[in-house]
Amino acid sequence: MFLLYGGLFFLLFSRFVFIQVTGTAEGQVLSTKADSKYSREQVIPASRGKIIDRNGDVIVEDTLSYKIIAVISPKATNNSNAPRHVVDPENTAKVLAEYINLPEQDILDILNKNIKAGKYQVEFGKSGRDISYKVMSEIKNNNLPGIIFVQDMKRLYPNGQFASHLIGFALKEENEDGEAVPVGKMGLEYIYDEELTGTHGKVNFKGDTKGFLLPNTEKMITKPQDGDNIYLTIDKTIQNFLEDALNKAEEKYNPEKITAIVANPKTGEILAMSQRPTFEPNTREGLSTNWLNEAIEQTIEPGSTMKIFTLASAIEEGVWEPNATYKSGSYKVYDRTIRDHNVYGWGTISYLEGFQRSSNVSMAYLLNRIGDETFIEYIHRFGFGEKTGIDLPHEATGTVSDKYPINRVTTTYGQGTTVTPIQLIQAMTAIANKGKMMQPYVIEKIVDPNTGEVISDHKPVEKKSPISAKTADQVKEILASTVTSEKGTAQRFKLADYTTAGKTGTAQIANPEGGYFWGRNLFLYSFLGMAPVEDPQLIVYVAVHKPKLKDTEVGSEPTSEIFNSVTENSLKYLNIQPENLELASSIEMPNIVGENVVESQSRLESQGLKTVIIGQAENVKEQFPAAGTSILANGTVFLQGEGNIKLPNFSGWSKRNIMIYKSLSNIPIEISGDGYVTSQSLTAGSVVSKDTPVVVHLTTPEETKIAPGLEESMEVPPQD
């Protein structure tokens, strides 16, 4: 017996020594097995990148939401007085069906199926995700055993129908690990899905079977890397002006569709872009089979807006004689007859009057003077027939129709040849910008929010000039006459406070079955214009397809209502000097950085400039506009000094001026609304610091009437 037990003890002792020395048992490393038993890992979710407008306003971002989980295993209730699992599947299904988009029977089937399978917990797919805080709270109030909520992230489009076909949307999809992650499905969300997608972080630690941290252990944290932020050239305020105008036109005229673009002619930046029909990206309500961004991916026959570039070609070639005359009404091209839009014409008239009246026949005669091949060359110079290179995919090229002589004639007035709206915008920059044609773009920059690094920074791109500055200015003056002349077709596009130049268009729409649709309710009505004429700050294109016009209405009414509203409000928002104010000479802004604040203020005001002082003491640390910039004689200069900052009276200030003041003062000013300031949380004269929050409320010009002279007193000329 002694030898037997002694031998067993020796074997057991030997086993202990072997395990202690080698750290293995049965071929397994025990330390690794222990680590795997006690190691825990939790995912730290990364946020998808934001999409932000040119002023820093968020257009798209992730927001907190909740996911429903049903704990169905009785094991969850072990050693607990209250049930921690679903004990009544029928009642649970009945209650949940009131709050999530899933039928009661389907919920019950999911619960029973997984209870039978012995699962610990179950989710409800797409219907159980993206639950708002309000809905989560209401479900909790029902005290359903086993129903718990896990924090999640939801893609939020706070502006609703806002450049929806440009922005697009993202939806959650399950990856290989069964995790639901947002994936871009359309628009910028799809195009830049890789850049917007972040990388999840994680926390590694040792914990017990219930997940609690073991004593004397440390957490190993890998920080999440949020997706890149995309900054757009889009201006949220101007985009809202456009969306409101399109909504009103859609409701009033019920057109087949509308396309509209607002651009900065000096840079090519797209400030607003939208179309109708559109959709609500949060719910996809209204999203039809058409997922195309019409301004970029769809071609049209532009109609008489093309006459702008025929006129420019004639002037550049030196064959334009505005006072020369021709016989309007009809023009014969072999076996085809070109007619004016009123069929009979206006008798013998000048070429200038012909352009103002939008005579097709005048274009045919001009083609004879320019020459067929030369004209087509100019059309290509203006960028038609090729992509603009805008930073969006699937751009259409359009087709310049020049195979037969009749094609070249019809191209002069925009029939037969196809273009995209964005091509018209690009070509119009050459007219508005003294012959300099600017490539359009919508992405300002892409920034890594984790490091602040600018990954991609887009700058204005100037293309080869199709015409001279002299020609551009002459075309601009003639386009202005279509608005001001009693014979002009664009009289409805005259603005209250600004000068306008542009060209109306009425185009036949091709019938897929052959030929063209015909009838006043079956045309494409458009306008391509700029304002103000003296120094164009905006180009606006509007196209309305097949509006339902009353017998007393004409095709220019829906386009003018959109153009006038958007252009007038946008120019006021941008602080552009109205035409009806007394014209002021420009002054080159001196360099006053380092000079005494009070002395600088007196010096500037002696030149007719207005000043806003930020910090009354010592010397000027920063100025706006910068030295060397041209500024109107009655414009406003911001001077940053030192010492206490006293709030000015913000009433009537535009959002742009508030942003300038905020940037120079570093005061945390919160801006509510769009348009012009109507109230502020702290009264004028209050002493504030960088830690003093200030709230200003803005209202659009349509909602309130700004006191005369108030806005112009805060005039700050736009900086190129």
Automatic annotation (TrEMBL):
Belongs to the transpeptidase family. The keyword Transit peptide does not apply. SMART domains: PASTA. It is an enzyme of class 3 (hydrolase). Keywords: Membrane. Pathway: Cell wall biogenesis; peptidoglycan biosynthesis. Its main location: membrane. It holds the Pfam family PBP_dimer. It catalyses: Preferential cleavage: (Ac)2-L-Lys-D-Ala-|-D-Ala. Also transpeptidation of peptidyl-alanyl moieties that are N-acyl substituents of D-alanine. It comes from Psychrobacillus mangrovi. SUPFAM superfamilies: beta-lactamase/transpeptidase-like, Penicillin binding protein dimerisation domain, Penicillin-binding protein 2x (pbp-2x), c-terminal domain. Residues 583-643, 644-700 form the PASTA domain. It is found in: Membrane. This is serine-type D-Ala-D-Ala carboxypeptidase. Its EC number is 3.4.16.4. It comes from the Bacteria.
